Amino acid sequence: MRAGQDEPIRGGSAPRVGRRRALAAGVLAAALALTSACTGGGGGKPSSWQGGDGGEKAPKAAATISEPAADAKDVPASTAIVFTTTEAQETTVEVKDSAGKAVDVAVAADGKSWLPAGALEYGQTYTATVTATGDDGKPATATSTFTTMAKPAKQVRVTSFLGDNQVVGVAMPLIVKFGRAIPEDYRDDVQRRMIVTAKPAQEGIWHWVSPTEVRYRPKTFWKPNSTVSYKVQAGGLPLGGGWYGRSDLTVDVKIGPSFVMTVDNRTKRMTVTRDGKVVKTIPVSLGKKSTPSSSGTMVVMEKLRHTVFDTMEELGPEEGYRTEIDYAQRLTWGGEFIHAAPWSEGVQGRSNVSHGCVNVSMKEGNWLFANTRIGDPITVKGTERKLQNGNGWTDWNMSWEEYVKGSALPYEPPAADTPDPDTTPDAGTPSVEPTP
């Protein structure tokens, strides 16, 4: 994470070493002022003061706000409230606008600061108050009044592949795209603002596929029939080069039943399981030796009841073809599909004659098309070619250890005593049982 000299210091996490160097003097001065003036009960005296003239003892607890600093201007609308307390048994955070209206706040994903529930208004003044209460029952407060920046001219759009209330398969990655490349040293800030909530709880992590796309998958397939919500608090967030997130994004989806397809080249059969039980075995024909199917775990990305495969431009008039296709389900960007192939029904289950697709009969193609969802997984085994990562939604073609390397934040396994097991902050929390 980096704060450029021409950009406001970014909120979203507790200050780190690099930020402390740049702000050491200012933050220390603000901290001292806030501690002495806002601890309460001691008339501005340190909390350890005992009142030699018979005055009341100051609160044992103390609170200090480090971000935004008191009287700060041009604060990003995405700012977090970063603070420290000492000897506090209970801590509350309150943010109000200039009219005294409270702003909803919640603990940030890093667990060390508080975020407004949404981006603050541009060009407005707010007051943050942190109240810490010790075991003596006496509250100590720290306040910071700050003004947000004017609406920036350069804004980055944030979009989700999935829409609200979609029902998807157990292998569906959550896909978020940015309208502009996010510099590598800003991605940790973005990822701290990306919160996934699953019920029941499931451990997972974000993985940067490219500078403009980040995906999330659980450690193992989603639990069938679970609900998943994800939020990207990008509104007003500095994204480098004077660019800022345009708005926040929230999406709610549902995971359908477990529908898993496994194809074995040795037997030329597809085994279909629903919620762990085998429901059908289907003869298939895979890619011939000159155009083999890919071995690996893929995900249904697109479903086309009727389409036309046209490779004339790609392969030329001698090798190319133009063929009408029914019940097509895309597996790779390179053109591998599950689809009905009535012309190969006589060899399905016995030999491979396709150009890389998984051929099934018209009857079985119809049945599969009626039962699958976007996000259902298929694993092909034993062919001459391995699936290339990036050729489709290949998130499940990587081991968990590989996948976590794509996170901009260190992976932290969920703690056994996680207070809110439904929420997946930073890299992820809670666990999920394996899906066949």
Structure report:
The protein contains 5 helices and 29 strands. A hairpin with a 5-residue loop joins strand 7 and strand 8. It is mainly beta and 436 residues long. It has helices at residues 17-38, 187-192, 312-319, 362-371, 400-404, and strands at 62-67, 81-86, 90-97, 102-103, 105-107, 113-116, 125-133, 139-147, 155-156, 158-160, 167-168, 174-178, 194-199, 204-210, 213-218, 227-232, 244-245, 249-255, 259-264, 269-274, 277-283, 294-299, 302-310, 322-330, 337-340, 358-360, 377-381, 385-386, 423-424. It has a 6-stranded mixed β-sheet, with no helix packed on it. Strands 11-18-16-13-29 form a 5-stranded mixed β-sheet. A 4-stranded antiparallel β-sheet has the order 1-2-6-5. Helix content is 12%, strand content 35%. The two termini are 39 Å apart.
Features of the shown structure:
436 residues, disordered C terminus, 6-stranded mixed β-sheet, 29 strands, 5-stranded mixed β-sheet, 5 helices, single chain
Summarize the structure.
The protein is mostly beta strands. The chain is built from 5 helices and 29 strands. It has helices spanning 17-38, 187-192, 312-319, 362-371, 400-404; strands at residues 62-67, 81-86, 90-97, 102-103, 105-107, 113-116, 125-133, 139-147, 155-156, 158-160, 167-168, 174-178, 194-199, 204-210, 213-218, 227-232, 244-245, 249-255, 259-264, 269-274, 277-283, 294-299, 302-310, 322-330, 337-340, 358-360, 377-381, 385-386, 423-424.
Architecture blueprint of SSEs:
Blueprint: H1 17-38, E1 62-67, E2 81-86, E3 90-97, E4 102-103, E5 105-107, E6 113-116, E7 125-133, E8 139-147, E9 155-156, E10 158-160, E11 167-168, E12 174-178, H2 187-192, E13 194-199, E14 204-210, E15 213-218, E16 227-232, E17 244-245, E18 249-255, E19 259-264, E20 269-274, E21 277-283, E22 294-299, E23 302-310, H3 312-319, E24 322-330, E25 337-340, E26 358-360, H4 362-371, E27 377-381, E28 385-386, H5 400-404, E29 423-424
Parallel strand pairs: 9-17, 11-18, 19-27, 22-28, 25-26
Antiparallel strand pairs: 1-2, 2-6, 3-4, 3-7, 5-6, 7-8, 10-12, 12-15, 13-16, 13-29, 14-15, 16-18, 19-20, 20-21, 22-27, 23-24, 24-25
